[in-house]
Amino acid sequence: MSEALESESGAEIEDDEIVEEDQTELDIDAVFSKYDENSDGKIQHSEYVSEHAVEGKGGVSGVLDKLLDDSPELRGQRLWVMFAISIVLVAGLNAYAMIREPELVAIEDLVQHSNEVVSIEGTVVSWVEDPYSSGENRVNILIEDDTGVAQLRWYNFAEIPMLGTTIKVTGDVIVYNGKIWIQAIGSGAVSWDDADIPDAPELTISTIAKSPEDYQGDTITITGYISKPVNPDSTFTSLTLRDHPTYGMQEYQMNMIIHSRTNDWLESGQKVEVTATLDYSEKFLQWSLHVQGPEVRIQRTHDPEPTKIGWSNYQTWSYNSGALVILDGEIDGDKIVEPGGDLEACLLNSQDLSSFQGKEVSYGGRLVWSTSYAGWCIDSSSSSSVEMLDVNDAENILGYLANNPRGTLDDVDNSTRYLISGVVSGSTLMSETGDTKIAIADAIYPNTLTKIDAYVPVGQHSGWLEDGQEVVANVSLNWNSASNEFQLSVWNFMLTGDAPEPNPYDLSEGAPQFYDLNKITSIVGNVVEVDNITYLQKEGGNQKVRINIDSNSIGLDSYHQGLTLKWVGRFIEVADDVTLAHHYVLDNADVIDENGNGIADDAEDL
């Protein structure tokens, strides 16, 4: 049975017609007779093109036909076409490489792009041409941004930018042997605009190094990185000022001497700005910067990194004394110990470490030597942090400890802790680098019956501890075989009661005794000036003592001029290096004005 199908035009098509069309066979002989001109039994592409040449093929199809045609007469044309295509491809790749700029990264992130081509932007702080004097066509440039300092090793360099210029650098990040730098070749590696050049050259260490004689005796301002930590109470410190915070990466450095207290800790690698004078030392054959402590200003744009110390170099820890350090070890009570070893360091002013007991951690703080512990300690607190004690539990048991030596020795062996109360005997300035030795007595002189030396760890208190100040302390006992005495190790303490009253001193008593010095003292007299030196002179007498008056004291105004007043300050002894003598000074002195009305209390009724 056959069925009729309907075509798109509507005409019916019989099944027989479809079968006949599908069964039509390809006439192979007719195809070869049409395209195989040389009758070799093969149809070449050229034979096919020749048969259809009248159709006028062009465009891409025509080009491809010529490329595929293996006729000898077309081989030259085919080579030229392929050469043209290769030129276009190479030009396209070069254009892409120029359009695709390297990633712009911060200097602190360079370590994450090792062996990559990146760009950085920063200010030129220093440079040196041919750093090893080997004739190499190279310049090393130090570049600084808000995150750090990087070294550029620029080969086949072009024009060197002026110091202080903001530049953009493109090159390979190289990390080798613990150091990192950018390596670049050719003039295109560094770029800047006219707007990036400073109005005047910035004075840097490299500027001075090129011609130090031009600045000799001048007051200059310079920025750099210091080579070692500086204690805030140190009155003389010699160190190195560098143009890079990492040792071994600096291009220039110079000696700097700080002649007074800085009042703040300066860390190794700290970025500072100093106003100093430049002088030549014939003794040491070197140029040096001389600066006063207050003229050393910390630049907060760079945070110094703590020094990583280890148990394997325990013998060299002294080189980092006073510095911020990081130490890996195991927490054991209030100590950090060497894993699997015998070395240990005590932990001062630490946080609650109960959750870390028996675990290996990285512990950070300031490395200090503790006399009471007889070893190295890591202090992790500020100097103002003190653990509060329950004053009601404190006992005055100093007399018991002194009068019962056998029982006290047993307490030493058992590491017994005591919570004691007492008073400070003698004014003492607390150290910022190690333990401070003070004396704790059971009562104020002349009622003192017992007095024991005590060692207070760094960080428990800052500034002065005044004579007669009441204290409560958590202590343990030690036996000092060298001095044959008991000593207290203070674990924490707090001040109680009011500050002691100033110690009165009469100028008619003559020169003070040793126990009168360093205390807050009150002296009555008249302010006089002799040979441009200010003295406090006894009224109606010739006895006088030097006085350094607080610059903000109301006792200097016209109302108080010529009056006999009570002055309060710290009574100190000062050495005179010129006359090789000593003299006494009432330092930082001021009058008392309790009601704040601008008139000294002892001048109210005048």
Give the helices and strands, then pairings.
Blueprint: E1 4-6, E2 12-14, H1 15-22, H2 28-35, H3 45-51, H4 59-68, H5 75-99, E3 103-104, E4 117-129, E5 138-145, E6 148-155, E7 166-176, E8 179-185, E9 190-191, H6 205-210, E10 219-226, E11 237-242, E12 253-258, E13 271-281, E14 286-291, E15 296-298, E16 307-309, E17 324-332, E18 335-337, E19 344-348, E20 360-370, E21 375-379, H7 398-403, H8 405-413, E22 417-424, E23 428-429, E24 436-441, E25 451-456, E26 464-465, E27 470-480, E28 485-496, E29 503-504, E30 520-530, E31 533-537, E32 544-549, E33 565-576, E34 581-591
Parallel strand pairs: 3-4, 6-8, 12-14, 16-17, 19-21, 25-28, 29-30, 32-34
Antiparallel strand pairs: 1-2, 4-5, 4-7, 5-6, 7-8, 7-9, 10-11, 10-13, 11-12, 13-14, 13-15, 17-18, 17-20, 18-19, 20-21, 22-24, 22-27, 23-26, 24-25, 27-28, 30-31, 30-33, 31-32, 33-34
Helix pairs in contact: 4-5
Extract low-pLDDT stretches.
1-5, 7-11, 15-22, 382-390
- Strand percentage lies at 35-45%
Largest sheet: 5 strands, mixed, barrel
The number of distinct helices, counting runs of at least 4 residues, comes to 8
Kindly report how far apart the N and C termini lie: 145 Å
Secondary-structure-derived class = mainly beta
Mean pLDDT, to the nearest integer, reads: 81
CATH homology superfamily of the largest domain: Nucleic acid-binding proteins
Strand order of the largest sheet: 4-5-6-8-7
Q: Architecture of the largest domain in CATH?
A: Beta Barrel
The helix content, as a percent range, equals 10-25%
The CATH class assignment of the largest domain is Mainly Beta
Count of β-strands:
34
